[in-house]
Amino acid sequence: MKIAVVGCGVAGMAAALALARRGCQVQLLEAFAEPRPLGSGLLLQPSGLAALKVLDLAEPVIVRGARVDELDGRDLAGRRVMAMRYADWRPQAFGVGVHRATLFGVLHEALAPAGVEVRTGVEIVGWEDPDAPRLIDAAGGVHGPFDLVVVADGAASRLRELLRPRAKAPVYPWGAVWANARDPDGVFAGALSQRYDRASTMMGVLPIGRGPDGDADLVSFFWSLPVAQMDSFLTGDLDAWRARALAMWPQAAPILAQLDRPEVFSRATYRDVRIGDWSSGRFLLIGDAAHGTSPQLGQGANLGLIDAVELAERLTPDVVKSVRGYQAARRRHAGLYQFISRWLTPLFQSGGWLGPFVRDWLFTPGSKAPGARQIAAFVLTGTLRLGRTPKALRP
Ligand SMILES: Cc1cc2nc3c(=O)[nH]c(=O)nc-3n(C[C@H](O)[C@H](O)[C@H](O)COP(=O)(O)OP(=O)(O)OC[C@H]3O[C@@H](n4cnc5c(N)ncnc54)[C@H](O)[C@@H]3O)c2cc1C
Is the CB–ligand 1 distance for residue 137 below 6 Å? Predict the structure, then answer.
């Protein structure tokens, strides 16, 4: 079976790999001349780690990443607003913070040995003959025909617009700036730590282990802000900002000291993808292209990894039928996380007072109640689902 995967992100690479290992002939088509990871760090949940295990890639990621046992979110008075512990789900469970380049590198290195043909500098802009699709790139080149086109071109997917013109993917009004820093004393080891001032200020530190250049003890720092203020933040008075952040979170002093130039930051915006159907004939959307959401729960890459494993398991020579079966199986899991992320995001990233008031009123006592803690841990691990268990999550 000949398959095109459009987009060399986490979801695209994982899908290309899983499908090639099932004997499919896979071409991975990527717009960038040199595919590269964007942003700084991300948190892999037990769900994503389980999918990586199916791909035989969990170990190299775990070894290079940093173990995370809990999410510890506090207000400025030090009161715990969020306390989610992986051990409340299963005693041995943990998450792994990774540099994006680590995850990218581990997936990318596995492509050639599996027989995936990677073509870069190929921006797909359309296709002809939907029954035996040939993909057309921006330079007029034609690729294919293919039995299946897996569309993994991210939250701002261009192909989604063509396949599903009525789909919506608005950018969230709030985003974040991110930067990597060193934490040689391990002040932030073991937890994703966050500080909140209502919902108008949120900052956090995620340990991510080793970087691509061999740097150890890395952390990702993020600062939430409205998308409309990103430019003025990066051209503004960083010293004044650091003084303000330091006053709110003195423990972060060694990290903030390293964030002294605008060049250390990368910008992040997110989209809320709303789409009726992920498949159309021989085309299937996966990853952020299908179900992009805010990273409030740290699930996007994990969902993309599970998509990949599930698709490879379900694909049969009856392509159209099997992608519909895949969609039916994946929708409830991904849709549930989209729903929760959509609901949670304004409680942590917005200008009003009501959202954070409700958040603190609900979550502060909830973080201590045993039943509520278990539910929170279930959500965090990426394993909460309605309906059938995806293959990657089966024991
Ligand atoms: C600030 C931030 C923090 C996050 N934190 C976490 C976290 O902690 N845990 C987690 O699991 N997730 C997290 N996420 C979400 C995660 O980054 C995404 O869900 C994931 O990277 C999506 O992967 P993808 O492969 O679907 O898309 P992408 O990574 O966006 O990849 C899409 C690829 O397609 C290529 N492309 C685009 N258009 C075309 C075209 N027309 N032709 C060819 N190629 C094309 C792009 O160049 C790109 O390489 C976070 C996201 C953000 C923004």
Answer: no
Residue 263 forms part of a structural domain? no
Whether 173 shows a pLDDT value over 80: the answer reads yes
Cα(344)–Cα(355) distance, rounded to whole angstroms? 9
Q: Is 32 in the pocket of ligand 1 (CB under 6 A)?
A: yes
The whole-angstrom separation of Cα 217 and Cα 97 is: 11
Residue 141 lies in a domain: yes
pLDDT in tens, 233-266: 999 999 999 999 999 999 999 999 999 999 999 9
- Is 9's C-beta closer than 6 angstroms to any atom of ligand 1? yes
Which atom of ligand 1 is nearest the CA belonging to 287?
26
For the whole model, what pTM was predicted? 0.96
**Whose CA is closest to atom 3 on ligand 1?**
295
251 inside domain:
no
Q: Give residue 387's pLDDT band: very low, low, confident or very high (50, 70, 90).
A: low
Total domains present in the chain: 1
* CATH number assigned to the domain comprising residue 361: 3.50.50.60
Asked whether 30 lines ligand 1 (CB < 6 A), one says: yes
Q: What angle do CA 3, 150, 44 make, to 5 degrees?
A: 120
Whose alpha carbon is nearest atom 29 of ligand 1? 9
Ligand 1 mean position, distance from CA 78 (Å) = 33
In a domain, 250, yes or no: no
Range of the domain at 111: 2-170+271-393
Please state, in angstroms and rounded to a whole number, the distance separating the CA atoms of residues 76 and 73. 10
Rounded alpha-carbon distances, angstroms, from residue 122 to 6, 19, 37:
9, 21, 17
**How many alpha carbons fall within 13 Å on the CB side of residue 300?**
24
Res. 394: pLDDT tops 80 = no
Strand arrangement, sheet containing 279-280: 117-119, 25-29, 2-6, 148-151, 283-285, 279-280
**What is the best residue among 153, 265, 275 to mutate for testing ligand 1's pocket, by most ligand atoms within 8 Å of CB?**
153
**pLDDT tens per residue, range 357-374:** 888 888 887 777 878 888
What distance in Å separates the CA atoms of residue 35 and residue 49, rounded to the nearest whole number?
23
